[in-house]
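User: Fold both of these, please.

Assistant: Here is the first one.
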Amino acid sequence: MAEQRSEQTHAPDPGPGGQGPTPRRTRRATPEEARAWEALVTTARRTVTDGLVVGTSGNVSVRVADTVLVTPSGVPYDRLAPDDVTGVDLAGRQVLGALVPTSELPMHLAVYRSCDAGAVVHTHAVHATAVSTLVPELPLVHYMAGALGGPVRVAPYATYGTEELAENMLRALDGRSGCLLQNHGTLTHGATLDQAYDRTAQLEWMCRLWLTASSVPGHTPTLLTQAQLTRATSRLRTYGQHP
């Protein structure tokens, strides 16, 4: 992948006296960042292909050292190219690219500042968003809740792109790797893009499962107890192939 060519961006920060944006110098992407950008774009496109987002809703980020690569605001994922790499430092200052970062940057940065996550995926998945309007916590309908750290909480509603939303999200994420955002969508994080995405897909599936089961007239879904979830979570830690 070609390195980022643009070395200057007009960030939306006011200049002296509020006379408009001040040009900001940005550096070239390193080879590692270029590879991470390619993987990020692939993941972002997958959220559309798998029906987790529509249009430019949702966003994806990945951390490379102290730089956070993020999808830019309002740009369809199928149009993103190698030279569109967009990155900020952990304080939110743009260090790569000329495109404005996602409006949900406060949420992404809040995750990276609070834990050792390597990637974050935010979607507007239909079933998960529907569940976020109905309950304060996703009922324990399946043991895969253990893969997210326990019962998935719903963060109270706040306007998108605000610090208030980021704070609500962090409280819902406490001890978890995923949460629902009331009347909004989902957010998951992981050590890698693949792990963060898989957690998003699992969360959407569990929400769809609960909605399906709870919609049967005259029946109430059987839920797991905390003890049952604890036992399943312990087994999940050794699931799969291990070197």
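And the second sequence with its predicted structure:
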Amino acid sequence: MNATQAHGTQAEEREDLLAMVSDQRTNFLYAVADINDEQAATRTTVSELTLGGLVKHLAKTQSAWLNVVDGTAPAKVDWSDLDPDQYRMAEGETLDGLLDGFRAAAADFDRTVRQEPDFNRLLTLPQYPWSPPEPVTWTVRRVLLHVFREIAHHSGHADIIREALDGANTTARMAEAASRGGDAGGDSAG
């Protein structure tokens, strides 16, 4: 494989990965569409998770992994550094404000991915309380796949919370969008 073919392959991989992440963001946003602040802050299961809290968590997740990619993440994160309200809306937060943060983090993440010259570049992850004692390194590619997994994982949580809240679900919203000619996997960051 020559340099041109390798570049084309990475460019295709980049767009495939970004399309997958965008699709998962869209599915996630279906779960929080057409609700108010009170609903976004409501617990509908025994879990602490709320829809607004998940929006906040996924915004912070994307931003935190961006910091790993650009080298600005802290070397160590202690329990006291973690936000105890990361999965629920705190007093004074609004769903619109959290969604603005989510969309900004998504746009920053996508921009960083588009500008990344080497998906095989190694990154040292921050040391968390649950990390093994030796330093952990991942490729940029693995970070991308991890963000995809986080969004997909929490999309499932959001769907369950929303169904318990008012019966709405992502699959029905995807079918509705498709019947209107919409793309269920469209750009959710904009």
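The helical segments are 3-32, 37-40, 51-70, 95-115, 140-166, 170-179.
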